[in-house]
Each structure stands twice: as C-alpha cells, then as structure tokens.
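Notebook, student rotation project (T.W.).
Task set for the rotation: take a protein with a known small-molecule partner, predict the structure of the complex, and write up what can be learned from the model alone. Partner molecule chosen: manganese (II) ion. Sequence and SMILES entered below by T.W., checked by me.
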Amino acid sequence: MAGHQRPDGDAIGGCLAVYSILRRLKKDVFLCNFDTVPSFLKFLPNSSKLKNIKKTDRKFDVAIILECSELSRLGNIINPKKQSKITVNIDHHANVRKWADINWTDSSSSSVSEMIFYLFRFLELPLTKEEATSLYVGIVTDTHNFTQTNTNSQSHIIASELLRNGVEPPVIEKNVYGTKSLNALRLLGVSLANIKIDSTGKIAYIQITNKNFCKTKTTPEDTEDIINYAGMVPGVLVWLLFRETEKKNFIKVSFRSVKDIDVHKIAGTFGGGGHRNAAGCTVKGTMPEVIDIVLSVVEKELKK
Ligand SMILES: [Mn+2]
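Predicted structure of the complex:
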C-alpha cells in the first residue's frame, strides 16, 4: 500500500483510509512511502504507521498504489508487478495510465479520497471519526477548500457525510492551513520581499535560493504554498516559483495559471508536466539563466 513521492493531503489521507479499511478486514498491511509524512499532516490518526523507506524487496499478495500515473512516481521503492501477485491502481487524474491488473480510475472525482469514500459505501463499512478525518483532509486539500475546478457537488455531499461522522473542520483548518513554523514564516517573508513582475504585468515570479533556505533554516518542504501569493497580484495570468535544488545548476520550476492558460504544456517543453493550471519541471542552468529562458517561453505562449 503506497502513494506517490512527496505525498500531499490526498495521497496521505487516501492511503490512511485504505489502510484502515484493510486493518478492519484483518489484513496485514505494509503502508509505505519514499518520503515522510509532511508535518502539517502528522496530526492525522495512524500517520505514524506510514513507513518511510527507500526500497523494499518484500513480496506481497496485493500492491495497492494511489495516484501514480507512472510507477516511477513511487520513487522506485518497490516494483509492484514483480513483487506482488495482484496490482491495483487507484487514481483520479486525467492522464492516468492503466498499468495495473485492476485499474480503478475516475477523472470526474475531485480526489482519490472522494473515490475511497465510495469504497466504504460499497463495503458497507460505517466510517469512524478517524477515517472520516483522513478522507476530509484529502478532499479539502485537493480542492483547495472547495475552490478549484475539480470541486463538484459530489465533493460537498461527501463532505457533509464526513461531518456527520465526526469531522471537526476547525481542527483540520488549524493543522492543515493555520500552522507554520517561525522559520517557514521567515522564508515566506524573504520570498515575498523579492517577488517580481515581468514588463507585461502578466507574469509574476518568486525565486528561492539555497542561501535563503540556509539563512532561514528551512527546507523545500517549507515552500509548499508560497507560489500562491504571486498569483494574487491583479492582472497576473501565470505565476511561477523558481528554487535551487541540492543539485548544482538545476532549478525546480513550479507553474500556476488562470483557467485558459495551459501551463502543463509549457512545463512539458522542459520535460515536466502536471495539470492544465498547475505544473512543474526541473531545468538545467543557473537561476538567472533559467528564469530568462522560462519567462521567454511563457511570454511567447501568452502572445498567442
Ligand atoms: Mn489527488
């Protein structure tokens, strides 16, 4: 049982809910991820059950993998096809590949947590407060508080059902959105002080160097929502975050855009990808070089 590298609220919430189902069915479950549970999700019940591993050679009866259109997204911790008798792929993304024995995919679902809610229904398992909380966190984070285009009326109906099963929205808000370490707040301050707008006023970007991380004693995990601030500037259509990586002269670029502009395509020209309005890639070069080349491609796209 595993989700993708650098897991988000939906990957963790969904995994913990499936973990709970399997435990209730008296199955022996090995829940793992290439990365650790992000600190804002550690309050979730059972989050400590997730094992942080770089590789396992164990053999399994079934491998259940959440939200991995490509198996490489697992970080190669396991080769499910070789190490398990049956593979199950559960995903809600549009570009999902049907690589497993059983592919349960639904691109009309806001999140994989929403899909797993129906698994509880199907199994006629009444939700515990802990399970409802995990699913709610998955839906809330993937829809960004029911505000993104993947939000649908089903998401609200399911959320209502989850509240009926004990979810406490203020507890979730405080943990997921309302908590930031002092160091992370300082990194945010440095980043916002250096926000830049291009000459057209349509592109805003933030850059974070390894020096910034060092001075504020932070890590890339602390950059989580910083990009969103760049999109708040009126008139901005595409906003980006450039950050140095541990690897010298490799810059990680994150893209966000308004509805009509496809940044998935732009990131694709640099070997990356994602969704239409949220994408990313890694580009070789120094910070100024990468900013130059990426901005020129975005500007060209905006002129079309
Ligand atoms: Mn998701």
